[in-house]
Amino acid sequence: MSVGICVEPPAQHGPVPRTHFAVRGYDLAATLDSGQAFRWRAGPDGSWTGVVRGCWVRLRQTSDGIGAEAALPLRHWHWLADYLQVAVDLDAVLATFPPDPPLRAAVRACYGLRLLRQEPWECLASFILSSTKRIGHIRQIVERLCERFGEPVAVPPGERPAYAFPTAERIARLNARALRACGMGFRAPYLLETARRVADGRFDPAALSALGLEAARARLCELPGVGAKIADCVLLFALGFERAFPLDVWVQRALREWYFPRQRVRPAALRAFVETHFGPHAGYAQQYLFHFMRTGAGRASGRAPCPGGAR
């Protein structure tokens, strides 16, 4: 749990801690269910529950923003506002996009989708576990990992138990067999070695934000099981590098069919294209294209060629 967020519960139960973020143009469901993070659960009433920086929270879309409630009294809500990136001027970001037809269609279909700002270690570990897995499977693996090795967190009466994401130090004390029991297979030794490097100070994910994009990507790619796609996910979803453009097989196929139809384009050429075409917020553009394709909105319009699936 992050120090200074939650405080000790009072002797008697008081009102549920609540706040409201007044923000226009925020699609909460698209943001939380777009493959950026893997710990959000949709409720039958349209709410979303998850654990952010060691605190249980429930979020709801409102007519003028996002309502939030917690299980424990809080010192402040700044950490959640930062996670949700409610202060971002989305229209200013979208105005930097090139006016090409696929991206215009993606923005129309997915308007309100935001990038989250996740805790770097949790984001890194989660995307190491994402390799060759569909989003539903990743959620299951992450949930097992948290249930078995994460610290319990306070939840409101009647809510299912919830757990913090296990620290690097906790995972570093395990072995690959214990991690494989969570269903992560060949990814277990990758996560274990990365956790050991973080735990003993050889690698600090948060420190990468002080580097340039290429240098930060290179440092991440030194970790076992981390290639350019996983590195770019961490750079984009945790460290604020909005030029990072995760280029997985699904996005590559979408780019080929939407931007280079009937052409043979190698991955290196696609990389060169995305680094120049999409502008200073290329990562935002990637997320719009990815979610547009994954949800089927693009296929329904005749623009998206790909089946839904993994990152």
> Beta-sheet strand percentage?
5-15%
CATH class of one domain: Mainly Alpha
Gyration radius, rounded: 19 Å
Overall form:
globular
Structure description:
- The protein has 311 residues and is α+β, with helices and mostly antiparallel strands.
- Among the domains are: 88-113 and 242-311, Endonuclease Iii, domain 2; 120-230, Orthogonal Bundle (Endonuclease III, domain 1), CATH 1.10.340.
- 42% of the residues lie in helices and 10% in strands.
- It has 15 helices and seven strands.
- It has a five-stranded antiparallel beta sheet with strand order 1-5-4-3-2.
- The chain is globular.
- It starts with 17 loop residues before the first strand and ends in an 11-residue tail after the last helix.
- Residues 300-311 have low confidence and may be disordered.
List keywords for this structure.
globular; disordered C terminus; 311 residues; single chain; Endonuclease Iii, domain 2; five-stranded antiparallel beta sheet; 15 helices; 10% strand; two-stranded antiparallel sheet; Endonuclease III, domain 1; alpha+beta
Short description:
This protein has 15 helices and seven strands. The protein is α+β, with helices and mostly antiparallel strands.
Question: Which helices and strands appear, and what pairs or packs with what?
Answer:
Layout: E1 18-22, H1 28-32, E2 41-42, E3 48-52, E4 55-62, E5 65-70, H2 78-84, H3 90-94, H4 101-110, H5 120-128, H6 135-149, E6 152-153, E7 162-163, H7 168-172, H8 176-180, H9 188-199, H10 213-220, H11 228-237, H12 249-259, H13 267-277, H14 282-295, H15 297-300
Helix pairs in contact: 4-14, 5-11, 10-11
